[in-house]
Design a protein that fits this description.
The chain is of the alpha/beta class and 415 residues long. The protein has a domain of 149 residues: Butyryl-CoA Dehydrogenase, subunit A, domain 3, CATH 1.20.140.10. It has twelve helices and ten strands. Strands 1, 3, 4, 5, 6, 7, 8 and 9 form an eight-stranded mixed beta sheet that branches. A two-stranded parallel sheet has the order 2-10. Helix 5 packs antiparallel against helix 6 and helix 8 runs antiparallel to helix 11. The termini are far apart. Keywords: Flavoprotein, FMN, Monooxygenase, Nucleotide-binding, Oxidoreductase. Belongs to the DszC flavin monooxygenase family.
């Protein structure tokens, strides 16, 4: 680690005791602790990956992965919500890179640059951004389908639709929302908007009681004729697809950090299992529980799965951050489609081993193993399951053609 990375890591370390102390109660209530917003803001972490020239800490994917991993050991729900806040930075960084690459026309640059810089400066100022893309509408063509519409109005845009997934619902200051422009049926028509949490027409969907990280405020939102001014929108046709071309690997270049959060959770439940089974002894022999053949097998399997997660994660981090790059973007993308599933499946197996090792007496919803089992189940399906990643890689290998990540829903599907 560089000196700057160590300084940023110290900021993360400083908040971990508070996150850890609140984790069990937050899970029980299925509610994101709103005090965490101020905690992370005061630590400067809401601007972790924002360049210093915009007021941020200047962190990179290495810093974000380290932060979500560390937070995952303390409170996976907070780690996940924090991750999604930081994904918002891609809506600032990638458009600016696309401008530098000459991808925008002269008349488009002021609009794109203004929006991109607004994303970054707000994050650096401690504004929490919830990144809303996913919807319940599905198509066979892509992982994420956008049906929410944006219709031009005097001085701005009218948004209509529903977002089914997005951490920090009712917590974030703004919902950074993707919508398709009227008249477009491809990803070229996707636009991004700042939607204030309390804007007229914005409402929260029914409480999310999911099998996963319960304290993420993951309810989603409804948008009913929500007006967004022009200066709060990046509605330049083609801007979304142009910015995606600038990412290093996965579609916005930071998806690895979500797998790091799951790995942190897996490491925590692994550590707890080792601590408990080595400290607790059999009443008749006095030997530690961990010495039994069954526990030896379980611990060996948990160790193998945990190390599998680390190997995939570390390799992906290397190929996404190495300078100069030593793999072409398509190879990095392909590796991630395999890696995401490999990491999340391995982490879930660690929790499953901990559940078995704890036995009936430890099979509690509030226990470390029980919470980890539920928390890590989300990784099996979030964005895409391992099976879809393997299928896409097989198609890439056999057809030399990658699936698009984003698409728009046919107009009739949005009605």
């Amino acid at each position: 680690m560089t000196d700057a990375e160590r300084e940023r890591a110290q900021r993360v370390d400083a908040v971990l005791p508070t996150l850890r102390a609140a984790a069990e109660e937050a899970d029980r209530l299925a509610a994101f602790p709103t005090t965490h917003v101020g905690l992370l803001r005061d630590a400067g972490l809401l601007g972790l990956v924002v360049p210093e020239k915009f007021g941020g800490l200047g962190g990179t994917l290495r810093d974000l992965a380290a932060a979500t991993y560390a937070m995952g050991t303390a409170c996976p729900s907070t780690a996940l919500a924090f991750f999604f806040h930081n994904t918002s930075a891609s809506r600032g960084l990638l458009p600016l890179e696309a401008i530098e690459a000459g991808l925008f026309a002269d008349d488009e640059i002021p609009i794109v640059q203004s929006f991109a810089e607004k994303v970054l400066t707000r994050m650096a100022d401690g504004v929490w951004l919830a990144n809303f893309a996913s919807e319940s509408v599905k198509t066979a063509a892509a992982n994420i389908t956008i049906a929410t519409t944006a219709r031009k109005a005097d001085g701005g845009w009218i948004l209509q639709g529903e977002k089914s997934f997005g951490c920090a619902t009712g917590v974030a200051d703004y919902y950074l929302t993707s919508a398709k422009l009227a008249g477009y049926e491809t990803a070229a028509g996707l636009a991004t908007f700042f939607v204030p949490r309390d804007a007229p027409g914005v409402s929260v969907r029914a409480p999310w009681d999911g099998l996963g990280m319960r304290a993420t405020a993951n309810n989603g939102i409804r948008l009913d004729q929500v007006f967004i001014p022009d200066d709060e929108a990046m509605a330049v046709p083609g801007a979304f697809t142009k910015m995606l071309t600038m990412s290093r690997g996965s579609f916005v270049g930071n998806q690895l950090a979500i797998a790091a959060a799951y790995t942190g959770c897996a490491q925590h439940v692994y550590d707890e299992t080792i601590a408990v089974t080595t400290a607790k002894t059999f009443a008749d022999t006095g030997e530690p529980i961990s010495s039994s053949p069954v526990h030896q097998v379980l611990i060996g399997e948990m160790t193998r799965h945990l190390q599998t997660a680390y190997l995939w994660l570390r390799y992906q981090l290397t190929i996404e951050t190495a300078e100069p790059p030593f793999k072409p973007k398509q190879d990095v993308f392909t590796q991630w489609r395999l890696g995401k599933g490999a990491v999340t499946e391995a982490c879930f197996q660690v929790a499953l081993g901990a559940f078995k090792a704890g036995g009936t007496s430890a099979a509690a919803m509030s226990g470390v193993a029980g919470r980890a089992l539920r928390d890590l189940a989300m990784g099996l399906v979030m964005t895409f399951p391992a099976e879809r990643g393997m299928l896409e890689v097989a198609r890439i290998v056999t057809e030399a053609k990658a699936n698009e990540l984003f698409t728009t829903a046919p107009t009739e599907a949005a009605r």
